[in-house]
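Q: What residues go here?
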């Protein structure tokens, strides 16, 4: 006889499809918090530093899965295992993009030149929804006064705007 069998576990946290009381929901919340914390410690640097589309998708799915396990609308352990599989897939893809740059571009995108040698690429601004105000803000954040003071400006794949000033 197992010390902590499935029936005992579901007696503590409630079973899928049944109403769960405040104590069961609280225990689920504690377990999901600890499991979520463990997942984030594993995935934190890549998934939640500077976010790419891949990172955002993972975040949404992990949050959705963990909330379903928390509320009891999905089976507890299969949902947690599926979430861990997604985090491992993310880690695998994060390592794969280092080896294969074309995969990196496909999954994470690529940088786009918005200004080169002081010339604004209007087509790139329109294509990526960047306004002149956004450019001016990025230029000022770099300590420059005018667009003409920038030699090159990139829209990075994480959404940041990088500015390289003209040489004095």
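A:
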């Amino acid at each position: 006889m197992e010390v902590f069998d499935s029936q005992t576990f579901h007696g503590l946290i409630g079973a899928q499809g049944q109403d769960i009381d405040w104590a069961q929901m609280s225990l689920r919340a504690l377990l999901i918090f600890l499991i979520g914390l463990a997942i984030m410690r594993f995935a934190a640097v890549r998934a939640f530093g500077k976010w790419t589309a891949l990172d955002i998708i993972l975040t949404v799915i992990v949050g959705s899965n963990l909330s379903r396990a928390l509320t009891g609308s999905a089976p507890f352990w299969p949902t947690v295992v599926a979430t861990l599989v997604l985090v491992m897939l993310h880690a695998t893809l994060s390592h794969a993009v280092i080896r294969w740059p074309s995969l990196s571009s496909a999954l994470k995108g690529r940088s786009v030149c918005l200004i080169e040698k002081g010339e604004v690429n209007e087509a790139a601004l329109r294509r990526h929804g960047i306004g002149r105000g956004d450019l001016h803000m990025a230029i000022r954040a770099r300590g420059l006064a005018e667009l003409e003071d920038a030699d090159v400006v990139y829209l990075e794949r994480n959404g940041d705007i990088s500015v390289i000033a003209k040489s004095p």
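A: Context that may help when evaluating the design: The beta strands are 112-116, 119-120, 150-155, 161-165. The chain is about 60% helix and 10% strand.
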